[in-house]
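Section 5.1 Outputs to date
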Amino acid sequence: MAEKYNGVYIIAADTGNGNVKTVSTCTPTSVSKHNSKPLTTTNVIEYNGSYYVIGQGHKEVVSDKTQDEDYYILTLFCIAKELARDNVTDASVLIAAGLPVTWYGNQSESYRNYLKQNKEVSFSLDGVTYKVEIKDAVILPQGYAAIIENLKDMKGDNMLADIGNGTINILRVRNGMVIEASFKTELMGVNECVKEILKYLKDRTHTDVDEYVALEFIKTGQSSISEKFVDEMKRIVEIYCGKVLKVLARYGYNRDFMKLYICGGGARVMKRFCPAVANDERVIMLTNICATARGYELMTLKMLRDQYEKK
């Protein structure tokens, strides 16, 4: 069941460039707008007279989520997905969302207002209508949220690498305390690797190959295309993993003096294609892709309880 506090549903919306996650669902991030009812009947939002198909690709990396309506639509999608778990269609909701750590300070208020643009909103998902009162929105830092349940175990010096589709969020934790000055964001997510694979395939075949081919290989280590391309695709992913380790080293990672926690969709990539960390007992892979959304939910719930106790 979705978390509630004083009758208000806390809905976590981790709207990344690669996937949009709630605490219980994960769907590829893409929004395709249609003026008439589309043929597909799955993951279709109807809002303000338009139809939006979710999940048939991913969004390009953007530095400001408020620049179009897509992230608002994706947040409505998250709300519906979580309310559906409880068979609820009419509810008061507090949105718990996030931003990359180095964008958090400058953009959190504008993103909060963006998500609160309608106090009351009516929309449908796959033919089911939802009537929602948006009580508020809480904006939280990515990365940190993903390890909220692990902080108590993070003794000594630790580094976190939250590897998403568009960004890598990096921070340090010392004896369970986050070092805020260590927050960094690098525009070097897994999509960089996808683009390199597609470039290689285009150079070899003189054909524009669908990104699904690259994503399938990165996610599974296997491919449905001709085997003659597989070895080079594997090499490209391994090079990307090496670049990630170099970035972490630039920010102070040294396996002899600290443990490394890797989360986000990129954790599975590193585990599959980077033996140097996959087989290292001092590297902890947090492969639950919904961990950040769960962190948003827990942090918001704690904030509400703390505010209540102060009254």
